[in-house]
């Protein structure tokens, strides 16, 4: 019998946090100010309505109380440390549809907030019983995976070792989705973090792991997409984002080259789109995917050729695409512009809006003026439970703590983001 996916009495949630170490030493975010090119395609759609301000009395609107950089880990006594996680990055949010709760997938994580604290591994999952989409209360973690114990690495593999595929340093999650009673994490196995030759991405491979007990135990699908050190440099299947299952019944997936190090000089901001039926995905029949491609002078869905590049321009690190209401929303870390940007479209295969900087680094070109600043930022994952397509919750990461002696990773919550 599968282990229950929730503990009988989850610990009481608390608040706040920051982040961890050994992942971002190669980060040298560029300060170029050019924006990436637009997306191609066509399809109709509509945006969801924005949420409204709270009122204290008739005709007396008050400002919404939103989280604008609330740390979710790395502070003593917070809800993450109560679950055994002191610091970590990414915190990719996903909906646990089987019990109407929320999961957050961290990358490399530590058991404490000091540099000497134990390394937990990657990925690590914390869960939340209830998410407040209004932004009035910050995300607070209710229990950790594996259920009933302290936070620990979900996948069974060794770091800085050969686990049967070649040498790998770590496995970094790129996105997570649950449907049909199974949870999926797409990840990249990283072979090089530093000293990556120009024009190479440093990946070993990418893969999909799944769990039939909602995150307690995990297995890997046998098929992997070869990476740089397996002979396929710049694979467009390095990093995925699950946009979700559309009302048309297809699971839409965006993917790009691996650039979690932010030092891939050949990244070029290229993103592609494919779709697959959920039952085919569950069966690992990845050959059943349809590709959004420019063929015979027009964009179309086809199996005759691979996906075409939809977006190109600046180098892109972590990215996220989610269907919020009736709108598809995209966020990504623009390495060259040193900003987390957003775009929207009525359909995955439609024309996307121009990039809009939302959270920016500490260098301020004119188009960054008035934006929230977060030095050493990256990530920028869209919460699938966001209030609306015009009021997103983003989870941003920061790789270097200001306080000496602390691990350099943390995640922060931003609400009310209007893409």
Specify the CATH homologous superfamily: Glycosyl hydrolase domain, family 43
Radius of gyration: 20 Å
**Any low-confidence stretches, pLDDT <50, length ≥5?**
1-62
Overall strand count: 29
- Indicate the percent of residues in helices: under 10%
Biggest sheet architecture: 5 strands, antiparallel
CATH topology: Tachylectin-2, Chain A
Q: Which structural class do you get from the secondary structure elements?
A: mainly beta
Structurally, the number of domains stands at: 1
Strand content: 35-45%
Please tell me the overall pLDDT: 86
Shape: globular
Task: Describe the model.
Residues 1-22 are annotated as: Disordered. Residues 1-13 have a biased composition (Pro residues). Strand 5 (92-96) and strand 6 form a beta hairpin. The chain has 419 residues and is mainly beta. The chain has a single domain (55-417), classed as Tachylectin-2, Chain A (5 Propeller). It has helices at residues 79-82, 278-282, and strands spanning 55-57, 60-61, 68-71, 87-88, 92-96, 101-106, 109-110, 119-121, 124-128, 143-144, 161-162, 167-168, 170-179, 182-190, 203-211, 219-220, 225-226, 239-245, 251-256, 271-276, 290-295, 298-302, 316-324, 327-334, 339-345, 356-360, 377-382, 392-398, 410-417. The longest helix has 5 residues, at 278-282.
